[in-house]
Amino acid sequence: MTRKTVLITGASSGIGAATALLAAKSNYDVGIHYNSDERGATLVSQLCQEVGATTRVFQANVGDSDDITRLFNEFDLAFPKMDALVNNAGIVDVPARVDEMTPMRLHRMVSVNLVGAILVAKEAVLRMSTQYGGDGGVIVNLSSAAARLGSANQYVDYAATKAGIDIFTKGLSDEVANEGIRVAAIRPGIIETAIHAKGGLPDRADDMAPSVPMQRAGTAEECAAAILFLMSEDASYITGTSLDVTGGR
Ligand code: NAD
């Protein structure tokens, strides 16, 4: 079976790392992107190679458009084509009410979670679209349950960027449906990853578990499984959809 190629942003940890490993086991060669955690990215790369994948590690800040251009140029040199993109890199900030949010915080949130994700998807479209000589492909974006719940008193800025990802997923899917590209998203709920500690709430997943109908936080591997399904031929008639991975939340 011919191996396919996927680029996963933010793959040095959490959902991105779990998706890289599952993709490697599912016959993908993997472009592993990271921002600052080179050690994490190298470890993920080694684990992917152990299950037979060819890998390359790329550094870029997705909040910087020049970095994104460089990332894709490096990808082009490393891999013959891009079959899938997992547009996973994202940030939260410390919990705050909107009246406490500084312009700097809001600009950073929007430039990484929304502008960055759109620019990354744009570069993928340029490589996948049959209109530009590509063979088609699949883009899976990372939204969040926050896109529907709003995250009042914590991260309304984050929730707004993820709601933007949902509607971007729908709009882009319509735009490229006739160019061989499917675009979908997952909306994780409370997932046990380091993102909560980065937002200053290391126990958030455990603390919120009782509010989940399934009474537990989800795992990065459960998100990876949903992402790989959306990437697969089993999802060949699914586009424009954001899939909840929330334990019912
Ligand atoms: P994580 O912190 O482990 O992963 C986020 C990744 O994005 C990291 O590898 C980080 O280095 C990368 N990143 C952050 N800023 C970047 C930048 N400026 N440039 C490049 N890369 C950058 O957390 P995670 O939970 O695995 O998050 C993955 C995605 O899932 C994010 O988009 C997040 O918003 C989304 N999500 C997570 C949860 C959850 O509960 N964990 C819930 C909903 C959505």
Automatic annotation (TrEMBL):
It holds the Pfam family adh_short_C2. GO terms for molecular function: oxidoreductase activity. Keywords: Oxidoreductase. Belongs to the short-chain dehydrogenases/reductases (SDR) family. This is Glucose-1-dehydrogenase. The lineage of its organism: Bacteria, Pseudomonadati, Pseudomonadota, Alphaproteobacteria, Rhodobacterales.
